[in-house]
Design brief:
This protein is mainly α. The chain is 77% helix and 0% strand.
Length: 102
C-alpha cells in the first residue's frame, strides 16, 4: 500500500514538472511575440545578456514560435529565476506547498 502511494506521488510530481515546463515555454513565446519587431527582439536579448551574434541568429531564423520558445538562447535570456522574479510561480513548487503534509 505504501509503495503504491509513493508511486502515485511520484507520478503527480512528474506531471506537475511537465506542466511547469510547458507553461514556462509558452510564457517565453508570449514574451517573444510581445517584442514584435526584429530590432526590438535583438535589443531585448542583448539587454538580457545574450551576445549580439546569437541574438541576431535567433531573431532571423525561420523556425516557428515553438522552436524559439524551446531554444537554449531564450532559456538563458528568460530563465526560470527571472520568471519567478517577475511573479510567475513554479507549478511544481506550488504543488509541493499545497500538498506537503507536516
Amino acid at each position: 500500500m505504501l509503495s503504491l502511494l509513493a508511486l502515485i506521488v511520484s507520478v503527480q510530481l512528474s506531471v506537475a514538472d511537465s506542466i511547469d515546463m510547458k507553461l514556462r515555454s509558452r510564457i517565453r513565446v508570449i514574451i517573444w511575440k510581445q517584442w514584435k519587431l526584429p530590432r526590438k527582439q535583438i535589443r531585448s536579448l542583448i539587454q538580457l545578456g545574450i551576445p549580439e551574434e546569437e541574438a541576431k541568429g535567433l531573431t532571423y531564423c525561420r523556425k516557428g514560435y515553438r522552436f524559439i520558445g524551446l531554444s537554449k538562447v531564450v532559456h538563458r535570456a528568460i530563465s526560470n529565476k527571472r520568471l519567478e522574479q517577475r511573479g510567475i510561480p513554479s507549478a511544481l513548487e506550488h504543488y509541493l506547498k499545497v500538498h506537503t503534509v507536516i
